[in-house]
Specification:
It is a single chain. The protein is α+β, with helices and mostly antiparallel strands and about 475 residues long. The protein is about 30% helix and about 20% strand. The chain has twelve helices and 16 strands. The chain is elongated. The relative contact order is 0.12. Pfam families: CRAL_TRIO (PF00650), CRAL_TRIO_N (PF03765), GOLD_PATL1_C (PF25099). This is Patellin-4.
């Protein structure tokens, strides 16, 4: 089975990353997130969609670490092992000194057992406490290095990278995170029922080009005043909102693999369409607090934060939280205005993994194209004023052809027809020619042919701009393309 197209061009892949200076330009137009295209040859061949190489996480293999990084990791492991063995991982230095003084006083009294004490029972309690101490873990990974877990180094490297390999700072961050998790009862948060009101505010769907699970955060749902008040109306409700964010983060972490070479972080997408503006101080306050807690207690667990449908006021909000973000966190921020949503997501997520509402091919309960079938998305370039023809041939009758089609920004004319091989048969119009608006979602259609022929998709670009088009198809009698 072959596919023919008349011409193809490639567009440049350029990252839109928000900088500190850009954030202060509240009144600037969307030129801060405009992206340029690159001229290439006029007649290249069709190509499969290629993944962006703009971002790579650091390796967690020891052999890939620099000498200074290896040394820092070794020092942190020693500190953690000592803190666990002395049961001081959850205690501050001040408390440790006080307890040492108390222990010295008790030593003399412990030399002679008091009446009624059972040495065997005391020994059993000490052994139980020792086992409990050694079982200290985070995200299912034991922190005691001599436990031999592959994930221990990976977790410790996250804290080191969050603090630029400054061992003491990374160690303090780890201790504070463990204390926060204990005080906030994070280990049992997955068992909590936090209600169904926020079920549509966040969901996991698909994977990005590097297999990171993708989390979509839909802030537009809070445009509903009733839900807004239920979520942010009181301090208690705002705390409940924070717990829901932590719970969802923990659900995402369950999908990660904390081994060298494993996927150890999540891609976060924040949809700000219809999000309440800066006048709603409650959501601003809760979001500000969530950003701080997530940054401090979930180091290097987010590969990138992509903000889409960004309104102008976002830049003012960013200028407020920017001073509280680390430089490393800032480097992971990407923003996209409404006209650039699909184009921006496509750099990090394959089209077959992007939900249809964002211009991708991923549909709920898709039984026609599954994850194994989705690798054959083909991209073509629509030159200004050109007409492109895509032919999907089927040599045998009785087959069902299914296809997906999308054009970034649409504003083109589009039609579908079936042309039989037998010249004596009639051409069948599947979809009359229609001008597709810029807000159109991708097209999914199918046709069962009773005789040999081909489905022909015709796209007319009447504009003066080049456009990117994508399609895939499958034959239910054969494999997908």
């Amino acid at each position: 089975m072959t596919v023919e197209v008349s011409s193809v061009e490639q567009t440049q892949k350029e990252e839109v990353v928000i900088s500190e200076s850009d954030a202060k330009l509240v009144n600037e137009e969307s030129q801060n997130v405009e992206e340029n295209t690159q001229n290439v040859e006029d007649e290249p061949k069709p190509k499969l969609v290629e993944k962006s190489s703009s971002y790579r996480e650091e390796s967690n293999y020891l052999s890939d670490l620099k000498d200074g990084e290896k040394k820092a990791l070794s020092e942190l492991k020693s500190k953690v092992e000592e803190a666990i063995s002395t049961n001081t991982l959850f205690k501050s230095e001040e408390k440790k000194e006080k307890e040492n003084q108390t222990d010295e006083k008790k030593e003399k009294s412990e030399e002679t057992p008091e009446e009624g004490e059972n040495p065997a029972e005391e020994s059993s309690k000490e052994e139980e406490l020792e086992n409990k101490i050694e079982d200290i873990s985070i995200w299912g990974v034991p922190l005691l290095p001599n436990k031999g877990s592959e994930g221990t180094d990976v977790i410790l490297l996250k804290f080191l990278r969050a603090r630029e390999f400054k061992v003491n700072e990374a160690f303090e961050m780890l201790k504070k995170t463990l204390v926060w998790r204990k005080d906030s009862k994070i280990e049992s948060i997955l068992e909590e029922d936090l209600g169904e009101d926020l079920a549509n505010a966040a969901y996991m769907k698909g994977k990005d080009r590097e297999n990171h699970p993708v989390c979509y955060n839909i802030f537009g749902v809070f445009g509903n005043e009733e839900l807004y008040q239920k979520t942010f109306g009181t301090e208690a409700k705002r705390e409940q909102f924070l717990r829901s964010r932590f719970q969802f983060m923990e659900k995402g972490i369950e999908k990660l693999d904390f081994r060298p070479g494993g996927v150890t972080s999540i891609l976060q997408v924040y949809d700000l369409k219809n999000c309440p503006g800066p006048s709603k101080k409650e959501i601003r306050s809760a979001t500000f607090k969530a950003v701080g807690l997530l940054q401090d207690n979930y180091p290097e667990l987010v590969a990138r934060n992509v903000f889409i449908n960004v309104p102008f006021w976002y830049y003012a909000f960013y200028s407020l939280i920017s001073p509280f973000l680390t430089q490393r966190s800032k480097s992971k921020l990407v923003v996209a205005r409404p006209a650039k949503v699909t184009e921006t997501l496509l750099k990090y997520i394959p089209l077959e993994e992007i939900p249809t509402q964002y211009g991708g091919f991923k549909r709920e309960s898709d039984f026609e194209f599954n994850s194994e079938d989705g690798g054959g998305v083909t991209e073509i370039c629509l030159k200004p004023g050109s007409t492109e023809i895509i032919e999907i041939p089927e040599a045998d009758g009785g087959a069902t052809l299914i296809w997906d089609m999308a054009v970034l920004g649409w504003e083109v004319s589009y039609k579908e027809e079936f042309i039989p091989t037998d010249e004596g048969s009639y051409t069948i119009i599947i979809h009359k020619e229609k001008k597709m608006d810029s807000v159109e979602e991708p097209v999914r259609n199918s046709f069962r042919n009773n005789e040999p022929g081909k489905v022909v998709l015709t796209i007319k670009n009447h504009s003066k701009k080049k456009k990117r088009a994508f399609y895939r198809y499958m034959n239910q009698k054969s494999c997908s393309v």
